[in-house]
Design a protein that fits this description.
The chain contains eleven helices and 26 strands. By secondary structure, the chain is an alpha/beta fold. The strands form six sheets. Strands 1, 2, 3, 4, 5, 6 and 19 form a seven-stranded mixed beta sheet that branches. A five-stranded parallel beta sheet has the order 8-15-9-10-11, with helices on one face. A hairpin with a 4-residue loop joins strand 5 (about 105) and strand 6 (about 110-120). The chain is globular, with a radius of gyration of 23 Å. It starts with a strand and ends with a helix.
């Protein structure tokens, strides 16, 4: 058992960890002063690729092609990069205990790793596996969170070409995996209890267009109260389908492979009962991403931060844009750079079946949707007389810039004027309307 000491230690090996390493280099950290400790066997990579190009690109994306920080316009940080920058990386290392006050990690082998100046917690989330559902341990049931999961799922879907696949979940992972499975010639059924897909973001009107596209691509939707009650055994220890229940009536749907995509939980178990403030499932941080323990920072999925755009309300975001930005913020603070308070714009995007949508801001208040999805569609949310959120299918780069600026400015708009655009079905006209409102407060010109 050995003890190693570094000025800065990053716990985690996902997106945020990779961007933290990049930030340390950019801030001229001394070679040999930074250590990264990761349970995964591979270096940090751009995790969103796992449900996108990893599954349906031709050829499919594989490492080292999408190591961080290629998704953010930076270097591809392979082993040679970390070595050349003097960053000590400990892969395949299971941390079993964290002493937050002492900034000390203990590994399964009994070794300890200590940070003298700053400990950056970047442990991310773990996929919810429905482990208590009968049959959850059957072969052929997959989740998708890490690189190894992606390899197993890809091989499983390829083997199920022409066979039945059940995707449990109607959110991000459910929608993206269902699309990929269909492109692999699988017979796909999506099972989820909500009334429509992506309910945390979409309105029923937006969802209806994407659901129609899924049905046109032969994806069957079993939703609106239908709950996964059990995974069914084919008699050999492999899954053969799912039993679901609606209004106390049970039914079965066949599937030689099942993907569970019902969300994720923050990996914060190692930090319990150590006095850290928590909220929204994560660790509360300030505008520098510092937790209530001095010198200990939380970034990415596990950070519950004050969202300045929402009056400082505490929020948690599971998105790569936040992972990247929060990592850079924490590193700057850890190195004494005194950055301005973290100022994030909520952002989400997805690509399925040739569609590519983006969203910025907040989906609250009254929504106005314009367009016929041939090929585009736009929605603006108006709350308190201000445009606070915007969604668009297939936005141009210029329209994307307008969307970002609008979300930042939250300009005053006339709801009735926006609603008059609905009959015209011109999504671009809706974006132009909010562009004009945004210019009136000067934000667009300063973007």
């Amino acid at each position: 058992m050995a003890t190693s000491t570094f000025k800065y230690v990053i716990l985690g090996g996902g997106n945020a960890a990779g961007y933290a390493a990049r930030a340390f280099v950019a801030e001229n950290a001394t070679p040999g002063s930074v250590c990264m400790v990761s349970r995964e066997e591979v270096l940090p990579y751009e995790r969103p690729a796992l449900s996108k190009a990893f599954l349906f690109a031709d050829p499919p994306a594989r490492l080292p092609g999408f190591h961080t920080c290629v998704g953010g316009g930076g270097d591809r940080q392979d082993a040679a990069w970390y070595e050349s920058k003097g960053i000590d990386v400990k892969l395949g290392t299971n941390v079993t205990a964290v002493d937050v006050a002492a900034k000390k990690l203990t590994t399964a082998s009994g070794d300890t790793i200590v940070a003298t100046d700053a400990l950056i917690l970047a442990t991310g989330c773990e996929a919810i596996k429905l482990a208590r559902t009968p049959g959850a341990d059957l072969k052929g049931i997959h989740t998708l969170r890490e690189y190894a999961d992606g390899l197993e799922l890809y091989d499983g879907l390829k083997a199920c070409s022409g066979k039945k696949v059940v995707v449990v979940g109607g959110g991000y992972i459910g929608m993206e995996v269902a699309a990929a499975a269909t492109l692999m010639a699988c017979d796909v059924t999506m099972l989820f209890p909500e009334s429509f897909v992506m309910p945390r973001l979409f309105t029923p009107e937006i969802a209806a267009h994407y659901e129609a596209a899924y049905k046109a691509n032969r994806v069957k939707l079993l939703n609106d109260g239908r709950l996964c009650e059990a995974f069914l055994d084919d008699g050999s220890g492999a899954v053969k389908g799912v039993m679901f229940c609606k209004d106390q009536v049970k039914a079965e749907v066949e599937g030689q492979l099942v993907v569970v995509g019902v969300g994720a939980r923050p990996n914060v178990g190692l930090f319990k009962d150590q006095g850290l403030k928590t909220a929204e499932g994560g660790l509360v941080v300030d505008g520098c991403m510092e937790t209530s323990a001095p010198g200990v920072y939380a970034v990415g999925d596990i950070a519950t931060f004050p969202l300045l755009l929402d009056g400082g309300a505490l929020t948690r975001s599971e998105h790569v844009a936040h992972a990247r930005a929060s990592a850079a913020q924490a590193v700057a603070a850890a190195m004494g750079k005194s950055p301005a308070p973290y100022d994030y714009i909520p952002f989400f995007y997805s690509r399925v079946f040739g569609f590519s949508w983006k969203f910025y801001g907040f989906n609250r208040g009254t929504s106005v949707t314009v367009g016929d999805f041939a090929p585009t569609l736009a929605t603006v949310w108006v709350d308190g007389g201000k445009a606070v959120g915007v969604f668009m299918e297939s936005p141009s780069d210029e329209q994307t810039a307008v969307m970002q600026a609008m979300a930042r400015a939250q300009p005053v708009v006339e709801l009735e004027a926006l609603q008059k655009l609905v009959d015209g079905k011109d999504a671009a006209a809706l974006i132009s309307a909010v562009e004009a409102a945004t210019k009136s407060v000067g934000t667009l010109a300063n973007l």
